[in-house]
Amino acid sequence: QVKSISVTDYGTNNMIGVLLVIHDVTKIKALENMRSEFVANVSHELKTPLTSIKGFAETLKYVEDKQTRDKFLDIIYVESERLSRLINDILTLSELENKDYSINFQKVCLNECLTEVYYIMHRIAQEKNISLELKNFEEDLYIYGDRDKFKQMIINLVDNAIKYTPQGGNVFIKLEKEDMKAKIEVKDTGIGIPNQHLPRLFERFYRVDKARSRSMGGTGLGLAIVKHIVMIFNGTIDVQSEVNVGTTFTIHLPIYKH
Ligand code: ADP
């Protein structure tokens, strides 16, 4: 954006120059675009389950057969659940992006947190006949961070690993120490991710297979939330994957020594 202002010498009333004011609005414009794209995406994502709920609720009045009514009611329930997960994830992500969260930084024992996550996710894995294993590091490792956010990050990764691994598969969580960093691996023997999708995986609402994600109850925001939490902890996250072999997410976090 360029603005020009002429400069006049009021003694002689002659124009003695022109002042050019240049505003670089590229960044502001890019931010604005990102924001409106996000709003468009969110609206679209919210509309899908809503349309379905509305449609089935309307039709329900005219259905007399009990079996069909029950089926419709099931769909309405599942879609409402999805809607509420979506709203929760949107709120979490927007809190993280706007740095709106209350920071509760403290010394956090990773071994303890991973054990808690293991017990939460073990039941879900069992329901799908997937074996979940945790290999903790022999000595306790600590980070300086927020305990709940750390757990949420690992739960999101393990939840995905279970979601995208067929029955009878395996999911491993492993904690190690590497170059004075805590290294946490979440590995599965699932469907894998084709290489070309890996660079965009952490974008909001990016899914490799939209239909599959939807049928698994996914919101498309899990990994965007993970990425933000990793950033808050000054860590890094990498993903390696092979189609039909499995996927490994690796997080490195600075160790807290005191
Ligand atoms: P979703 O709610 O769709 O699972 P995420 O942000 O958690 O959204 O993940 C984005 C996409 O990355 C998923 O839709 C899926 O295609 C892919 N993905 C994530 N984790 C895995 C995994 N462990 N194995 C295979 N694909 C995965």
From TrEMBL:
Keyword Transport on entry: yes
Keyword Transferase: yes
Keywords: ATP-binding, Cell membrane, Kinase, Membrane, Nucleotide-binding, Phosphate transport, Phosphoprotein, Transferase, Transmembrane, Transmembrane helix, Transport, Two-component regulatory system
Reactions the enzyme catalyzes: ATP + protein L-histidine = ADP + protein N-phospho-L-histidine
Subcellular localization: Cell membrane
GO biological process, one term: cellular response to phosphate starvation
Residue ranges constituting the Histidine kinase domain according to the UniProt record: 41-257
EC primary class: transferase
Main localization of the protein described in the UniProt heading: membrane
EC number(s) on file: 2.7.13.3
Protein name per the record: Phosphate regulon sensor protein PhoR
Portion of the full sequence shown: 208 to 465 of 465
